[in-house]
Amino acid sequence: MAAGLAEHLGWPVAAVRALFVILAVFGGIGVVAYAAYWAVLPPREEDNSDTARLLAFAALVIGGFLLIPGDPWMRIGLPLAVMAIGATVVWTRVRPSGRLRPDGMQWSALLLGLLLVVLGVFALAATGLGLRSVLSVAAVAILLLVGVTLIAMPWIAGLYRELTEERQERVRSQTRAELATQVHDSVLQTLTLIRRHADDPDRVVRLARAEERHLRSWLYEPGGDPDQALTAALQNLAARVEEDYPVAIETVCVGDLALDERGRALVAATGEAILNAAKHAGGPISVYAEVDDDIRVYVRDRGAGFSPEQVPADRHGITESMRGRMQRAGGTCEIRSDDRGTEVTLTLPRSS
Amino acid sequence: MIRLVIVDDHEMVRAGIRGGLPDDIEEVGEAADVAGAVQTIARTDPDVVLLDVHLPGGNAQEVLRQCHGSYRFLALSVSDAAEDVIAVVRLGARGYVTKDITADELADAIRKVAVGDAVFSPRLAGFVLDAFTGSAAASDDELDRLTARERDVMRLIARGYTYRETAEELFLSVKTVETHMSAVLRKLQLSNRRELARWAQGRGL
What we know:
The complex is a heterodimer of chains A (352) and B (205).
Chain A: H1 2-9, H2 13-25, H3 29-40, H4 51-67, H5 72-93, H6 106-129, H7 131-196, H8 201-220, H9 230-244, E1 249-254, H10 261-281, E2 285-291, E3 294-301, H11 317-328, E4 332-338, E5 341-349
Parallel strand pairs in A: 1-2
Antiparallel strand pairs in A: 2-3, 3-5, 4-5
Chain B: E1 2-7, H1 11-19, E2 25-31, H2 34-44, E3 48-52, H3 60-67, E4 72-77, H4 82-90, E5 96-98, H5 103-114, H6 122-132, H7 148-158, H8 163-169, H9 174-190, H10 194-201
Parallel strand pairs in B: 1-2, 1-3, 3-4, 4-5
Helix pairs in contact in B: 2-3, 4-10, 6-7, 7-9, 8-9
C-alpha cells in the first residue's frame, strides 16, 4: 500500500511508511488514514470500479474519529485526514500525464474528492476561528483566487496553446507514420518485386500498373465499397483483371449507383466481358458506365474480333454468364464485333 | 513543323517525351518550373506548350494565367483527379492527357492542339458528362448544357472510340466531330456550372 502511494507521489517508500508511523503515534490518524488509502487507491491493475468500497471506508474513517471524541489532536487531525482522503481520491483519478482516467465514475469520484478537501479546510478553519469569520475568510480566499487566476491568465493561455500544438504535432506525426506504412507496404514492396523480375517486362508492367492503380485509389478516391457501389465495383474488377492479364483497362464512370441484386448481376456480367476481352483480345480495354434512366456499361477492346455465332456451344462464357445473367435481371446484352475490335453493351433498366 | 516547349519538373519525363517525338514535331525549349516556363515560352514562341499540371513553385495554372491567350497548351498529368483537369482546362488548356499515353497518341494530341482542336481523353469526356448531367435541364444558359450531339460525341469518346470511329458511328465527318469537341471545350471553359466551379476549386489549385 505504502509502495503504491509512494509510486503515485514519487516519494521514497520509506518516507511514506515513516509518515504513517508518525501519524499513527499521534492519536491514531495514521492507522485510519492507512486503512482509508487502502480503500481508495486503485489496485495495480487500474481497476477503479469499486465505488462501494470507497464509500464504506469513508464511513469507517469518520466513524473511527467519532469513537475517540475530545482528543485534542482530533480537532486538527480529523479535518486533515478528510482533506488527505479527498486529495488522494482526486490524485488517483488523474494519470501522470495530467489527463483524467477514462472511466465512468471519474466525475463523481472527482467531485467527492473535492468536496472532502473543501470540507476538511472549512472544519480546520472553523476550529480556530468560528463559523462566521470562516465565511468571510472564504470570501476573501475566493477573491484572491480570482485575482491570481486573472494575473496567471497569459501563462494559462500559453500552456493551453502549447498543449494544443503538441496535440496537433501528434496528429501530424501519426499521419506521417500512416503514410510511411502505406508507402512501405505498397510502393517499396512493388519496387523490390520489380527489381527481382527485371528480365520479365510483362510482369514488370503488370506490377507497375497494379501498384499505380492501388496508390491512385488511395490518394484520390478514398472510400467506396466494391460490394456497395457500381463505380467502386467496376474499378475493383478492372484492377483484378489487370493483375492477372497483361492488359491496360481504362474505367470511366458517369454517375454512381448503390448495388442491389440486379446491380450485382450487371457487375458480374461486366466482369465476364472484361475477362473475355483480356483473354482473347488483349491490348487496351475501355470500360464506360453511365447511370441515367437506364444503367449502361460498355466494354470495348481492340482485338481481332469474332462472330458470336461461331463460338462453340460448350463455351458458356458469353451465353450463360453475360446474356443469361442480364436477362434474369431484366436487362439486355448486345455484342458488336468486327476486325477492329469488340464492344459488349450491357443495359439494365433502373427499376424492373 | 510544330514547335514544342515541354514544361515538367522531372528530367526523366522530359527526356522520355523528347525521345518519342516524331519528325514533324521539334522541341524548341524545356522548363522545370513556373518562372522558367514563362521565360522559355516568351523566348521561343512555340506552337504548342506541353504543360505538367503539378509544378514546383506555384503550379501549372500560374503559367496559364501569365501566358494565356497567345499560346496553345496541352496539359499533362499523372493524376486523373477531376479538379486538376477541370482547373487547367478552364484556364485555357486545349486538352489533357495522362503521362501513361503512348508516344504516338501524344504526337497525335500535339498535332490536334497545334491546329486549334480540342483533345479529350475518355476520362476527361467522363468528367464533362458528369459535370453537365443532372441539374443541367434547369438552366437557361446554353453554356450550361450540352446539345444531344455533343453528348453523343462525349459518350463515344468516353467509351474509348477514336475521333474517326466516333465520326463513323454518328455518320458525321471527322471535322464535324472536332467542331463539336471544340464547342464542348468552350462550354467547359466558360460555363459557370456549380459542379465545374466546385471541381476547379477542389484542392485550391
